[in-house]
Amino acid sequence: MRVSNVTAQFGAAAREVFKNMSAGEYSYMLIFVPSEYREKKNFYDWKSLKESDRIKSVLKSAKVKGTKKSTKYGKTAIAFKNLEDLKEVMLRLEPKEYYILDCDGDQLVEKNARFVKLLMLKEVNKN
Description:
This protein has helices at about 1-10, 10-20, 35-40, 55-60, 85-90, 115-125; strands spanning about 30, 70, 75-80, 100, 110. With about 130 residues, it is α+β, with helices and mostly antiparallel strands. The chain has one domain (about 1-125). The chain has a five-stranded antiparallel sheet with strand order 2-3-1-4-5. Helix 1 runs antiparallel to helix 2 (about 10-20).
């Protein structure tokens, strides 16, 4: 039942990553939504959309390890073990290109990107 709720709320890519995660292994999930996904011509033909070159290059330049990733219907879901790895990817993207999910517990909860940035600042100030 949880997996079907994830699909309905966040899409097939998030479902794929979520069902292959061990409890407590990952803290955050970033859902990348490419501009092609929002184009009117693709509105009912998302099946033709593949993984965006943009997210591929961002992940390559961020050099994060230990993530889980899936792309379905143009959206890419990436699970991160910690806030630092999430930050490396998130700060390379435009705010309209993604949203963040908190993976704490047995469900996914959408978090405001501004809230996540405040958590990052808190971490920096703590060190």
